[in-house]
Amino acid sequence: MRSEFLNSLSRTVGADSLLVGKDACFPYSTDWTKTPGNPLAVVLPRSTPELSKVLALCSKEKVPVVPSGGRTGLAAGAVPTNGELVVNLGRMDSLSEPSLLSRTVRVGAGAVTENVHQHCEKVGLTWPIDLASKGSCQIGGNLSTNAGGLKVIRYGMARKWVTSLEFVKMDGSVLTLNAGLEKNNTGYDLLQLMIGSEGTLGILTEATLKLVPVPEEKGKSIYFFAVKNALGLPYLFEKCRTGPFEILAFEFFSSKCLEAVSNKLGRESKLRGKGEYYVLAEVAGDRSRDAWAEATLSNPLVIDSLVADSSESQKQVWSLREGITESLALTASLRKHDLSVPVDQVASFLQDVEASLFEAKLPIELYFFGHFGDGSPHVNMLCPPSIPFEDFDRACDLFEPKLFGLVQQYRGSISSEHGVGLLKKKWLGFSRTKEELDIFRAIKSAFDPKGLLNPGKVF
Amino acid sequence: MRSEFLNSLSRTVGADSLLVGKDACFPYSTDWTKTPGNPLAVVLPRSTPELSKVLALCSKEKVPVVPSGGRTGLAAGAVPTNGELVVNLGRMDSLSEPSLLSRTVRVGAGAVTENVHQHCEKVGLTWPIDLASKGSCQIGGNLSTNAGGLKVIRYGMARKWVTSLEFVKMDGSVLTLNAGLEKNNTGYDLLQLMIGSEGTLGILTEATLKLVPVPEEKGKSIYFFAVKNALGLPYLFEKCRTGPFEILAFEFFSSKCLEAVSNKLGRESKLRGKGEYYVLAEVAGDRSRDAWAEATLSNPLVIDSLVADSSESQKQVWSLREGITESLALTASLRKHDLSVPVDQVASFLQDVEASLFEAKLPIELYFFGHFGDGSPHVNMLCPPSIPFEDFDRACDLFEPKLFGLVQQYRGSISSEHGVGLLKKKWLGFSRTKEELDIFRAIKSAFDPKGLLNPGKVF
């Protein structure tokens, strides 16, 4: 049965588009989470009609399918864990000429994000979704997960920067949504529904992306602040929001994160004053900032500050923020959560998380950092020195329901950016009601009645 | 049965919230299209719990419901044509304090758009959706129809400017989506699905709107151009897109539209040269434009141009564009269509529409104008002088399938802004495939299995 199906598949796509066997499939079996995968085989279609035939065959034979792109996911959304067929889009990486008039570009789902950037920059345009993984991740994955990244505060999430999608449903039918229109009020917005659906409704094959001119960023500076406590974060955010410039990034981290970066990577802050939290505010604009800076810094919540104007000094400040993930991984065993709450409640949320841990008396150290300006704190739980891993692990299991209970109380999100995939399913009920999940199921079965597409993911 | 239901309803909301009888219901029976309505009664709930009880009762008694706001719709989406109960949201018009920190405001669905603007402008913020109907239309209607309006080229459609929605399903259950989060990747984006669903999935009761600072618009000017033919439109749009300023509006109209404005309203263009088309480009920015203007105007496609810098001269140019709808209505019987195609294909589309009419030899005069920069031309068909209305009407019936056939060929939209409602249903198949409509139906029945909410609208 299984080998008969693989033979049919091989006849459909050609033997060189089908990978069978553990070794050949290995590179397509997992993502950045290293969740172990177990694929039936891997197919690498070259075109939408080819993919359509593959899915029609799978649908007929009831073979479940996992769509896969650059495999940089952080929720195991593209990992085949139950012998599914992996459909990798990497070969469908076409790039059309960007249209200067409509400021759009049509690309294959397998196009690597950084290649799209470079392709469009030749004509002075860019797709404003910028991700740490841009050298490997693909447009199809970016859209399937509604990627965010480094410029959300300025440009928003990926879903804002798309004017058409082509996708193949599990039954093999091909749909094109919106076809590059700026405006189209003709019924339910299936395009937005597809974005962020993590490959459970259809497999994206092509997209038209909206572009912006490559920004000039005149007068780019970084303000780096040490603040007394969490209250300094919203204070500075509001000051920066109303400041004489545009905010390009507004990141924060706790003093513990800074210590880890110093201890593990030897990167030191140039601020002399120490605070409970630090803020990196990248701004641009050509208006005078003197009066603003004087008024802002006079508040006793601000313990110390510096301005980085040169490219080198800016890199130095960014290197502190960018070193956090690595240095925490080098520090101890950890669990990480990518949360969000309304922007004006981040500080109070962090204080409540700390208070909740204090009350629970569990052996966990909390490290807070992330995109303050998007209301999106990362909460990392680390194993304290001298505590056995098992005790820490158990403590995390006990603390997580409290943490997610707080997320629910704040009507926040258990996954601000990374999606739900496989790894965050168990927390989904803290962000979504039973009623919403019922609607999810009905929508899923409208697109994929047999439940063969990315089964077991999201809900 | 009917009076029993109305008695129950009256007990639920109080007699002063229920309007019965033709005269009392009249103001809530139609919209700007003047499509005749025929409501069972009108209910004006004061709160979400009250609305929830109303819908639960209607659901139990199988009474169909039409949600209604400011009744400024142009597709009869809120008109009760078959004895439905009208639920008008006008009393649920609360306005919370805008949050400076998160740049959001929470408002009731019945809040009038202009009141929201004025409320937020007190603290220097605004909701960037600006509509000709803003003095009457309501936020619930703006979101249910994904309103566009005058600033789409700069800010996009309404769906970009919302961070939470509360709505009541037909069974009376209340859902809150997203709760003001900037980032939330936890499953299907039901918030975006609700926006633009024209009251067929649930009744919006509250929204959190994203705000922007009231724009300063330094150095605002209007360039007004006469161009030789349709090719001048994309030429100027590309020049303006790459010009030393930001585009605030990029509108176009044909010479016939200008003649109508002159004949009917006595408003005259200050340009001496005549062109087949005219362009109004409103721009802002403080960089020098001399070199740009010289290079742009040297193209023979540009027949004449002027720059309006004073507020008075800007008003004069805008009055030409704004007078078109009124003057066409004063000129002759007409049918209007609010279409869209990809921005880089508008000129070619208009030429094809003209050629198609020429070939069909039908007694129709075409008037083109609209939002060129959004790819959104209005195509108005007017009755030529001395042609009887019946002949014109028949000609329109014959020409419309050709017109929409062209829309389909360009993969355009039969309704770029106004929605589908009742009046555009028959053309929906030119923009949406059978497959998409099947998905619409499945989604509809996930939210409203009995099909009681805004029945017969959209599809």
Taking all Cα atoms into account, the compactness measure Rg of chain A is: 23 Å
Helical content class of chain A: 25-40%
Q: How would you write the strand order of the largest sheet of chain A?
A: 14-11-13-12-16-17-15
Major sheet of chain A: 7 strands, antiparallel
The average pLDDT of chain A is 96
What is the number of E strands of chain A? 17
**Global morphology of chain A:** globular
Uncertain runs of chain A: none
Count, helices of chain A: 15
Most extensive chain contact? A-B, 79 and 79 residues
Secondary-structure content class of chain A: alpha+beta
Instruction: Tell me the span between the first and last alpha carbons of chain A.
Output: 29 Å
Strand content of chain A: 15-25%
Oligomer: homodimer
Descriptive report:
The structure is a homodimer of 459-residue chains. With 459 residues, chain A is an alpha+beta fold. Helix content of chain A is 33%, strand content 20%. Chain A is built from 15 helices and 17 strands. Chain A has a 7-stranded antiparallel β-sheet, with helices on both faces. A 4-stranded mixed β-sheet of chain A has the order 1-2-4-3. In chain A, strand 7 and strand 8 form a beta hairpin. In chain A, helix 9 packs across helix 12 and helix 13 crosses helix 14. The longest helix of chain A has 21 residues. Chain A is globular and about 70 Å long. Chains A and B meet through strand 8, helix 7, helix 8 and helix 15 of A and strand 8, helix 7, helix 8 and helix 15 of B.
